[in-house]
Amino acid sequence: MNTGRLGALSLTIAAGVIVGCADREIARAKDAAPRAEGGGRVAAGPDSLGPREAVEPAPAKQPPPTQPPSPATTPTPAPVAPQATSPAAPSGLKEVFPGVRVNAEAKTVEFDAIVPLNAQDPQKPRQYLEVIACTPDTKEHEAVLMTRAKPSHIHAALLLIGLEPGSPGIWNWEGEKLETTPPTGPRVKVTAVYQSSGKSIEVNPAQWVIDARTNKTLAEGEPHSAWLFAGSQMFKRQGQEAYRADSDGTLIGLHTFGGELLAWSKMYNPDSGVEEPRWIANAATVPPYNTPVVIRLERAQ
Fold it and tell me: Which residues, at least 6 apart from 160, have a Cβ–Cβ distance to it below 8 Å?
């Protein structure tokens, strides 16, 4: 992790937000953020579960669901617009990147999302999950949240509230033994805020995930686990540095792919040949398909 460059970026953006600098300064920070964030560690990918090379092509996109929801009940998701879908947004928020807002005094980051799957579909009683939140055209068929905000911009916003990234978890085969390096970083409180029957609901999205073996939610089964500001990592793509979570879409993790911006502290392997899938969407609590949701990030106490 190049903490010097990240620290300079944080100060530049913070100054622009706090003193209301000119728009060109904000634009310059936006351009710099994706190049300056992330870690330098090399992690294993979901297919090989071996060390990743520093130079690699962009990860393949996930295939669409084999049985897409009926158009009659699940319309195409509308673009997520900044601020427009922000129920119960605290005062003092300033948009520092498209769709990403910061309250520097309250040390809060917010961004907009939607629910990309129909957890109540009677034809799919078990919808397995790989991540909590992703970006478009990546893992939305196996996520409970999807956002158009860039993970690298959210990374920069977390720097603004004083958080320093750690590193994602790593899978590595040593002969026939699979070694693990757990993710590191400060704990982050994740809250999903949405409207239901005219009321604002705030919930830990770990309540939206159920263990198919025990029927306990992720929050109930792992009360001492948490999301960590792992900070994803940088990698080379066509000779240019790229932020892995921007490419993979792994914004808030569940399984450990090695490029999560926010990683679940307990590692779960995404390879079904190594570990049987167990996490499914909680039909009783996940909001209806396409529900606008605000994701709020804060340092965990």
Answer: 10, 13, 14, 17, 96, 102, 104, 109
